[in-house]
Specification:
By secondary structure, the protein is an alpha/beta fold. Helices cover 32% and strands 20% of the residues. The chain has helices at residues 8-19, 76-85, 108-133, 149-160, 204-210, 231-245, and strands at residues 3-5, 26-33, 38-45, 61-65, 88-92, 142-147, 165-171, 185-190, 213-216.
């Protein structure tokens, strides 16, 4: 992996070079959000045949956000699997130097809400920046994926600012309500050792109406949904996500829900 801070032109040239590399090549870059004076590291996982990704037949995109306290580089098991399916995956570093940490003595509801909003803003920033620079990818139907707080940020953005978003995949998000929309498909994988706040998960009728897929993972732990977690859990997560996001003959996700 290479860590570089690039201007727009250099970044565009650099990405073209990286995209010509081997299957699922990974490059780590740093975008800079001038409006918030905030660096945003992004790890890019390219599909096996990036040359086949063209404006006429764009390849799908997934934007992945980590849980609070986790690195965006701790989800290679999922990022690499999606790249093998043909996705461009942008794993987004959500924490920056100077960010406030959770204060256990403070208002936890307010703190979580502020972090989710900040994360949603960062996802939207990355979506906009990469859409300008990476041609041949389907930025009009991006998939947002996230673990824990990263899932909350993804759900919040999809619910409040859904432009360019086709689906949300969460690994045990617990605070922000998942989208209720026929235009945005949902897969949420639930850990066995936690519970979501009221209203976060769609009820049975909403699941039928919107085609939302909520799957419980037996004997799973919230904090294990990372590269360091048990292989059986990572395989279960990867299998469920692959069924949901596998591409059909037209290059569109299947959105299949299965146990």
């Amino acid at each position: 992996m290479r860590l570089t801070a690039l201007g727009a032109l250099a970044f565009a040239c650099h990405i073209q070079t990286a995209a010509a590399a081997a299957a699922a090549a990974t490059d780590t870059i740093v975008l800079f959000d001038r409006e918030r004076a905030r660096p945003v590291p992004v790890a890019l996982y390219f599909p096996a045949s990036p040359s086949a990704c063209t404006p006429a037949r764009p390849c799908p995109v997934a934007l992945l956000s980590p849980g609070y306290g986790n690195s965006h580089l701790e989800y290679g098991f999922l990022s690499e699997r999606l790249a093998r399916l043909g996705y461009l995956v942008a794993a987004i570093g959500q924490e920056a130097p100077g960010d406030a940490k959770f204060d256990p003595q403070g208002d936890m509801v307010r703190q979580r809400a502020e972090m989710a909003r900040r994360g949603a803003t960062t996802i939207r920033f990355v979506h906009g920046e990469l859409a300008q620079k990476l041609r041949g990818y389907d930025w009009q139907r991006a998939v947002l994926a996230g673990h824990s707080m990263g899932g909350d940020s993804s759900a919040l953005l999809a619910s409040t600012d859904p432009a360019g978003i086709a689906a949300v995949v969460t690994l045990d998000n617990r605070r922000a309500a998942l989208p209720r929309s026929s235009a945005i498909r949902v897969l949420s994988l639930r850990a066995a050792d936690t519970g979501a706040d009221p209203g976060v998960l769609p009820d049975a009728e909403e699941r039928r109406r919107y085609g939302a897929c909520i799957l419980d993972l037996a004997d799973s732990r919230h904090n294990d949904m990372v590269d360091g977690g048990p292989s059986v859990l990572k395989d279960a997560i990867g299998g469920a996500v692959e069924r949901f996001l596998r591409l059909d003959a037209a290059g569109r996700p299947a959105f299949a829900c299965g146990e």
